[in-house]
Each structure stands twice: as C-alpha cells, then as structure tokens.
Specification:
The structure is a single chain. The chain is globular. By secondary structure, the chain is an all-alpha fold. The longest helix is centred in the last third of the chain and has 57 residues. Helix content is 86%, strand content 0%. It has one domain.
Length: 428
C-alpha cells in the first residue's frame, strides 16, 4: 500500500482517536481538574511500563519480522506462536505482582491507599491488553492496513465510551479504572478482524514456542522495554519533582501541555509506525533506505510546520475547547512547546531506522541518555522559568536528539554500503 493511501486510512483512525480524546479530555478537565489530570498521567505511565514488561515489549519486533517473513510462512508462524506465548506468560506473572503490591503502589503513585483496587482491575485486564497489542502488531506487519485502521477506530470509540461513562459515574476513580479496561474490551473487536487475516487457528497460534525466534524478539524487547521503562519512568520522576517544585496544580498544567502535544503529533507518529516501520524493515541499510528516509522527511516536515503554526495561532481557542479556563495559563508555553514538537517528529524519522534495523545497543544508550537529558533540562527549566522553562527543556532535548539521530543514521547507511547485503530470505 502506498504512503498516500496508508496516510489517508491511518488518518481516519487518528481523526477518530483525536475526536474521542478531545471529548474525554474535556470530561476529565471538568470532573477531575488539573490536580487529577496529573495523577491520571502518573497512572498512564505505570500502565505503559507494566504492559511493556508483561509482553516483553515485542510488538515492534513482531511487526518487523511479520513484514520480513512475507514469503516464508513457516518462520512467520513460529515467530507468531513464540510472541503470543511470551506475551501471555508475561501478563500472568505481572498480574500476580500487581495484585500483591497494590497497596504500596497506590500509596506511592496515587497518594491514596484507598485506590488500591484499581491495580486489581489492571491485573485482570492485562492478558487482553497484551493480546490486543500483539494482534495489532501482526496486522501492521501484514500490511492489512484497513483491518488495522478499523481495529484502532473501534478501540478509540469503545474506549472513549467506557471512559466517559466511568468518569461521569465515579470521577477520578472511574477514570483510573477506564485506563485499565478500555483496551481489554477492544480486544474482542481486534480479534474478529485479526482472525480474517491470520491463517492460523487460535489453538495453533497459542500453542508453540521457538527459542531462536525468542532470541530475535528479545533484541526488540530490550529496545522497547528500555523505552517503556526509561521514558515513562523519566516522566514519573519529572512529574513527582514538579509536584514539589511548582505544585500539583501547575504539574497538571504541564501534563495537559504534553497531552496536547501527543494529540498534535498523533497523525505523524502513527504514520511513521504504520507505514515507515515495515517499509524501513524491508530495505537494506544503504542508498534505498536513505531515499526512503528522505521521502519521510518530505512528508513530515511540511505537515508538522503547518500544524504547529495552527496550534500556536489557535492556542487560546484550543485550550478553552479541549480543557477549561483553568488551564489557560499553559498557552504561555505553547510557542516553545510546538517548536519541541517539530524537533521531536524529525528526530523520530531518523530514529526509526535504528529500531527497524535492530541496532539494540545504540538505541538503548540513546533512550537512556536522552531521557536523562529530558529530566534534567525540564527540571532546570522549571526552576528557572516555571511552565515555560519546562517547554524549553523539552525543545532542547529533541534538538540534541535530532542531531544525534541524523549522525547515527548517516553512519548506519554509509557503513553498510561496504558490507555484503543479506536478503530477508537468506536470514530466514
């Protein structure tokens, strides 16, 4: 499928996700306020870390090898079986840990031991969350974009419906429970779409394990687990320190500012994942990859400059519409924040080549170093300039990240031209 068609179809899913997120954000802004917004951010980061640990964070590897083994049915089947077995076992183990540690986790993360039962909801939802993610990764690798898009649209609509109902009924507690169960509910829709594109029966899919494929997936697991632990862990640290430094009200403003950035960049980052990750994985690290990355930049840069300009010009309207007047203070930091958004997307384009070509050690070092830079620059910025200072720290982080990723990408593609290429079929 072409980049244009992929972008259009993926755009439908993203527009649905954005619309449902806007509705949900408005409801959260009204019913939980800035302080509750900060606590929800803490719990979202924990869920990201838990699901990645439970699954081994192998979704990216599943997408890569599904695309790479397009003409090799037996290795692909063994890889799927191995991935699903790893995901289910990991989810069960992590679920037990969550149930046993629910009290201390609630006190540490949510500052309220009475919220401990939300971790039980998370534990029992974990298997379905993991399976949903793995099925989406397979659909992406198969380039079954229509099914992938439909699954994401259904997930957005169902998730938003469940979340709004729970928030209206139970406030902050309902919002926390919704974060656990919404993805689990959408697993049923994803499963029906997945079954049409996967040639294996459920019993076959869940029944095998191959150590060689487990080792291959482990390389991606190390990269993804690093991202899933280091990045949210850095955000947890920042949010906790900001709570002491500028107060939980302003910390909620910081969380809302980054949530707006996430919504802003959703179309571009989703297209990178859906189209460019499988595409980069198919190409050898040479002239063909350079040409595809240049194509990605020609798509990304004009779009992100346009959307960033619109975000800044409409900042007051957007905050009033998406949130409430209580959040208007964050418009002061919007100019610097959208600059950071532009730099972040461009850094991701080059960075995806490291993921797609399994540069495990480099990727892990980059994630750790730049998360540390993000934490340090954000906290220094908050100390010097409050909310605007945190946005400046965000922009500085991704400016340095972009330069670094471009240098590494240049070395990757130039060095490979002197090495004999091995085809996907030979690797299989």
């Amino acid at each position: 499928m072409t980049l244009f068609k992929t972008s259009v179809l993926n755009g439908l899913a993203v527009l649905t996700r954005v619309f449902t997120a806007l509705v949900l954000n408005k409801v959260l802004a009204i019913y939980v306020g800035p302080t509750g917004y900060g606590l929800i951010g803490q719990f979202q980061n924990l869920i990201s870390m838990v699901t990645s640990l439970a699954s081994g964070a192998i979704g990216t590897g599943v997408t890569k090898y599904t695309a790479e083994y397009a003409d090799a049915a037996v290795p692909r089947r063994l890889m799927w079986q191995t991935a699903f077995r790893m995901g289910i076992v990991g989810a069960l183990v992590m679920g037990v840990v969550l149930v046993m540690a629910r009290g201390p986790l609630a006190q540490w993360l949510l500052h309220d031991a009475e919220q401990a039962s939300v971790f039980i909801w998370l534990a029992f939802s974990l298997v379905l969350m993991i399976l949903n993610g793995l099925m989406l990764a397979v659909l992406n690798g198969l380039k079954a974009i229509r099914a992938y898009v439909l699954a994401n649209i259904a997930g957005s609509v169902i998730g938003a419906g469940v979340s709004v109902a729970l928030v209206l009924s139970y406030g902050l507690y309902g919002a926390l429970v919704a974060l656990c169960v919404s993805q689990a509910v959408t697993c049923l829709v994803t499963a029906s779409l997945f079954r049409r594109h996967c040639e294996l029966r459920w019993a076959e899919l869940l029944g095998g394990f191959d150590p060689s494929h487990a080792r291959k997936l482990t390389g991606f697991a190390l990269m993804a687990i690093t991202s899933a632990l280091v990045v949210p862990g850095g955000q947890l640290l920042v949010r906790g320190e900001l709570g002491h430094l500028i107060g939980w009200h302003d910390t909620g403003l910081w969380q809302a500012l980054h949530k707006i950035s996430d919504l802003h960049l959703m179309l571009l980052t989703s297209t990178l994942t859906v189209y460019f990750l499988p595409r980069f994985s198919e190409l050898p690290a040479g002239a063909a990859l350079r040409a595809e990355v240049a194509r990605a930049f020609r798509f990304v840069v004009p779009v992100v400059l346009l959307t960033s300009t619109l975000m800044y010009l409409l900042r007051g309207f957007l905050v009033r519409t998406l949130l409430t007047d209580d959040f208007l203070q964050l418009t002061d930091a919007m100019a610097v924040q959208v600059l950071g958004d532009c730099l972040k997307v461009c850094a991701w384009v080059a960075g995806f080549t490291l993921i797609s070509h399994a540069k495990v050690r480099l990727f892990i070092i980059i994630e750790v170093v730049f998360t540390a830079l993000f934490v340090g620059s954000t906290l220094i910025g908050a100390h010097l300039g409050g909310l605007i200072g945190t946005a400046a720290g965000y922009a500085v982080t991704y400016a340095v990240c972009l330069i670094t990723n471009l240098v590494l990408f240049h070395r990757l593609t130039r060095a490979s031209e002197s090495v004999p290429l091995v085809t996907a079929g030979e690797r299989a």
